[in-house]
């Protein structure tokens, strides 16, 4: 039987943590976790999914005639758990500043109340996404199949909630929620991205949508599409400048086929179509079709018609 | 402490559900879930994995000499759970038509009996897939490693079962099973796809194989390969035509390297090799090698030899 | 109610297992699992994550002042569980050779003791990875967000442990651990790959890093980058030759943008930059920038400057 | 390693089951459990406890303002689970007779609807029991302590529900529920017993109350009190006659101290007091005190006063 | 399918709760549970058991050399959970009075710190109890068997902790803990009872020990022994007077055999022996033996010798 | 927030453990648990209950036609777990003596094989107990109710298995199993007690049956009956003599009513009846009735008839 040198290893790990904390200018004060919990948020997200779609994503033994009881009870529990997580993030945001507990509470309540009140709107948006997927995929047989089986829809359920958290100044909770969707679906949407109704992502693995992307209505994209940044401007001291608009604007009714990469603050005009694997770093006027034909040469832009690729 | 306006939110969500159901021409009748359950199916799939490979994917304390007891007990439970889910899907399929409970039962029993009887065949096919992976990957050290660690093999366990469900007219259960594999492996195989023995997917993230794809024996593909549709024909009213053959036919012994995209009902002839990142929308004769050499220009097709890329 | 022919199916499955075992030259002897367990290893990996980052990835109710108690208790349990798994793998490695239980024990203890002692070093390396991510992504707001939310960091936690297992001759446990990360993040790093400090993978879905790849310090890569093999040499009998160096060497400070594919034992020199979607099978000198400009033609190599893509 | 003769043991056990079934005149037909499930009922009882006392026995994170949502959702789920169990018991009751599924359904619905409608009454009765305990025990400090900590109250929650099941002709479910209470509290109340409001059992271990006992209002009993049967009349064939009144009648305001044994269909008149360890098989007039003084001789009955023992 | 009148029942239950709260003079204010949680305390008690006896009642995979890590981590978690429960009870105690959060915190910390510091003493006391059981029961074969299997020892682990809670003014938590032991063992010890070292209860079912009982060293009692109150004095208004000494004093080295009942504030002198089923309401001098010989007549007191019954 | 002196408490507890181990002459050597685990045994007992009565105490979704698969799989797992526990107990028994691992293994295998082979016999005995309960209780309506609801039957399932463990020299495992039954039912049967077929315990709370008791066929006993020891002979050094016959012999067809206490190695002759609360320390001839009539005076023995009390 082995006798590991547990004491020594514990000691070494403790010293490395101390160094790290020193390098991060943190004092090691007694106390518990001052940071939101992934597990707690996972419970909240599951509960909200159930509250939004009770008969499809709620408990299997739920019955129509008592949906509202379930929704009410589930929301109450989930929102109060989320409130507790919001307090943790707000305190964390102010870990180097003064903030009173009263201010923390006020901000947390305001934020989560806002999120709660937006849930009906979120459900409406998601209904439009479900319909868009049903209409956009020849393999889809019913809207119920779409809701239960399409990773793109699952990713949007998480995103539309995460985006609310992000715009209400809880970027960390938003990001944790977004990564849950990423891990399950392979679709990586930054919670900052603004996405209109009736959005459809097919297959989805490898999709990346950046923080400042803006997407209109009825947009359709396929697997491995990137809406990314082209370069990262640095400030005078060489640090990255954070928060600048640096991802594409995609107007209404655009379609982007699999593997296309669109980089930088370019605009894809209303109704244009971007072919598979196309690499784009410039604006595309409304109604144009950008393809690579059969060969891999310069993308060909054709703005007369908008037939599919 | 916050007091959310739970009553108001519950009311709004209820109204949005009503609107949705009206738009979907559904009446809200009392009663429980009329729809298969993802959790129930997940249990079934886990049990079938164990029954197919008891000493590798079954319980850790299983012993050789009582494998058959385990397999028999597990199958009996799993098949009856699956039968219950089949009933739910069959009733759902007929939600706008008349069907007697006797007919439901008859179809459900017929279907799941058929699936049950095909399990030995499925195991044989999977054995061929495991061997193909072992032979095809220089990093593979044993067949056991392949079975336990290769996402491509996991995806095929799900697919070969899901395909049986699909061909026996349970497309929804099939699809749910396929998405479980997609979520775990990043490999998205539509359950309608027909795949021969000794199939090997390496790495696998981003692979997409469409509903009407047909794949022969001893085919090998790498990550991010797409076997997709080129365009979606619409009918006179502008709706997508569903179910038409629209994905590639891949004949025996073909190899498709990472990132290649093959679109439409094209045929890749026996033994041909498609290089990485190649974009193809036309047939390739048997024995040919399609590559992009070093540059990104037009794919070069060379039909004299079939040496690896 | 259906009565499945369970007995018949059990019998058929049993025969197929017999055939398989015969083909694999295995005798069916009484006894239990002789193979490591994925579930056991999953517990170990969770515990090690907690022991390495107690206040972030440990239990939510942990407190600073008793971190060391938690770390010590968790390590002790996890290391002994890992020791048991190591014994299983060592016995499995010698299933066709003679090995005494004493030798098994000696090797297992040596191996896991070595791993245990390397944990402080692993933590240091991971700290450098966290900082690299924070500095490299304009969307990252704090190091804590990076640790909790970045799939690239999660993949590296698994990899740095898996790599220790691999170099200490437990390739199977290493591989199982690597696949856990692959399934959660879509990032597929073979445990054999050698990776220096301050490594950052952004987004990550679809990244593949091969067994013999060697990566220097401060390297940054994006989603869907492949560091793969170009061809697989076979020996005289046509079998793949296993273990040869066949993946790229990436020197310090290299950046590889999304979708780039680098194949074969090529060297990317210090500080060079590989643009998105570039396909490379040759060496790149230090300091060069390889891009595809706006079009998809031959990659353009520019070695005078190294401005971002 | 042992190799047990599992096959042989399985075979022997199978034969013994066959013999048992033959002796019980049962045929072994294919099919599942035709018998209520203890686990399912345990869930129902837990849910009903929570629905009856939401802020004390419901989930710890419940909040006043959403009690009704919780109660409604919990009741709906619990009652439908109970309905399914009721069907099982009704079919079981008729296993030797013809009964249509329609009749089963009708009886099950009628029964569980009746139970559901009686829940408010049950809660009122339990409130009176809680008050009785609080008033009767000098150690009780609050009504909340009584509800959470007193085994006598817990036993009455189970009993008042079990009694409803019993009187509505589901004696088996009733009995299973009663045994759950017995196991947790050591208090064995047959679900057939009729018990008035404001009933208080202190300590409770060893209390036995028989099937046909009738207990009035404001009765108080202590540990190890038996209200049992004196003898069991047999019919002409020597079998026990089932269902005859054979347990005591206890009128209002009676107190029975620890260890007293009252056997047979005797009546303890209003307000009488039975001392500890007294053994009684005859009626006691209203207002009398039966004690054993200091010695163990004949119980002394004093009907002038009713001071405590 | 039944449609229960859930709305109506929910409404009725809600009204009954309102009536109850009105009768208890409680306002229904928004907010969550203001009351300790049984589940939380159950976790604490399990953790404390493990911390007190790590190699016997701790986790099965614990190892000697890391006991202290386990004990430290477990204590830290358990004590903070207990602290949270203490706050709940203290606030509850003052629900009709003013108390600041600072006062709550101060009292909670003081109390639980006191309990924490008494744990080594508790362990010593329990060691003496284990030895007493081993020495007192001819069937006991090892001290380990005693610790693992004797309900009397389990009851004392709970009691010695519960008594600390009680004496530190957390009577509700104390009582909940006591009832956990009662439910598992059938032994009902009020947490107020004062019990010296080396106490042994054999078998135990039905034992009742009252709130103000005082028990010396090396006392031994058997199943169904009651140390109870004789009568409950009421105050001028007829309410029970709470907290008066009303249970027996049992001096050192006393033995009380099964089923004996001792009522009231009597004293059993040092070394006396009370026979089985004896009913006692008077003092017994030191060294006396009280038995009922073969018959059930007046107990016979023999103060010359102290041979066993 | 409190900062407990965890380090100090951990240190104190560690010292007390050291003292205890010193007093028990144990060295503190590195290593894990050398003692059977209650949790492991609980799993074994649950599995054996299911294997003995698959359609009643097995999983709820079990079906008749695959009972044998379930029984075989369950037995195999349970028996190997039990084997591992047996090794632990055997090593523990020899902790102060030399024993080779081979001897441990041999004894463990022999013992558990013996137990396994006795399972069919145990099932037969239990069938007789179930019938006895059904016939003996006027409230019992079916044999299934008896099996599911009667604590006396549950206690006998545990006892008949525990007794096998005891007679095969695994007294510790036997005792742990017995205490599980005691905790659930309030019935305390020492695993050493020898009990014939068709044994019925009604209600059961408070029953105590000692280690050397011998009970014939068709015996019936009620709650709170004690079959105990009268006195404990000590050896020359004042230590208790362990293992001597010291509990009653109860011959066939005896009935013992509630609360009766029988102490010492007395014999209750065939067919005799012992009335409620009777206190007996002498032999009773066959066919006699011992009662206390209405008063509490000397038990009256009537050997002419055997009518019930």
UniProtKB/TrEMBL annotation, chains A, B, C, D, E, F:
Keyword GTP-binding carried by entry: no
One Pfam family, short name: Hexapep
GO BP term, example: amino acid biosynthetic process
Alphabetical UniProt keywords: Acyltransferase, Amino-acid biosynthesis, Transferase
Catalysis performed (reactions): L-serine + acetyl-CoA = O-acetyl-L-serine + CoA
Domain of life per record: Bacteria
Family matches, as Gene3D superfamilies: Hexapeptide repeat proteins, serine acetyltransferase, domain 1
Signal peptide residue numbers: none
InterPro entries registered for this protein in UniProt: Hexapep, LbH_SAT, Ser_AcTrfase_N_sf, Serine_acetyltransferase, Trimer_LpxA-like_sf
GO molecular function (one): serine O-acetyltransferase activity
EC identifiers of the protein: 2.3.1.30
SUPFAM superfamilies, alphabetized: Trimeric LpxA-like enzymes
PANTHER family per the UniProt record, alphabetical: SERINE ACETYLTRANSFERASE
Recorded family membership: Belongs to the transferase hexapeptide repeat family.
This protein's name: serine O-acetyltransferase
Organism from which the protein derives: Neopusillimonas maritima
């Amino acid at each position: 039987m082995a006798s590991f040198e547990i004491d020594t290893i514990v000691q070494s790990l403790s010293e490395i943590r101390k160094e790290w904390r020193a390098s991060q200018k943190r004092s090691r004060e007694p106390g518990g976790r001052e940071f939101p919990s992934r597990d707690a948020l996972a419970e909240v997200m599951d509960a909200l999914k159930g509250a939004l779609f009770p008969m499809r994503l709620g408990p299997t033994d739920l019955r129509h005639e008592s949906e509202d009881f379930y929704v009410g009870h589930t929301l109450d529990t989930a929102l109060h758990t989320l409130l507790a997580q919001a307090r943790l993030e707000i305190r964390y945001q102010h870990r180097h500043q003064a903030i009173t507990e009263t201010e923390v509470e006020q901000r947390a309540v305001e934020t989560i109340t806002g999120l709660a009140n937006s849930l009906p709107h979120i459900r409406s948006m998601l209904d439009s996404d479900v319909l868009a997927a049903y209409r956009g995929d020849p393999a889809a047989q019913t809207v119920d199949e779409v809701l239960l089986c399409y990773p793109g829809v699952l990713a949007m359920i998480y995103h539309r909630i995460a985006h609310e958290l992000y715009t209400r100044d809880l970027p960390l909770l938003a990001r944790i929620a977004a990564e849950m969707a990423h891990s399950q679906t392979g679709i990586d949407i930054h919670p900052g991205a603004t996405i209109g109704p009736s959005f459809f992502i097919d297959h989805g693995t490898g999709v990346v949508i950046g923080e400042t992307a803006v997407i209109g209505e009825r947009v359709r994209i396929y697997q491995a599409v990137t809406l990314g940044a082209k370069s990262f401007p640095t400030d005078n001291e060489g640090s990255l400048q954070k928060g600048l608009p640096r991802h594409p604007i995609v107007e209404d009714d655009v379609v982007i086929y699999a593997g296309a990469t669109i980089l930088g603050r370019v605009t894809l005009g209303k109704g244009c179509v971007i072919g598979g694997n196309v690499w784009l770093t410039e604006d595309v006027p409304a109604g144009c079709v950008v393809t690579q034909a059969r060969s891999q040469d310069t993308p060909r832009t054709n703005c007369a018609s908008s037939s599919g690729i």
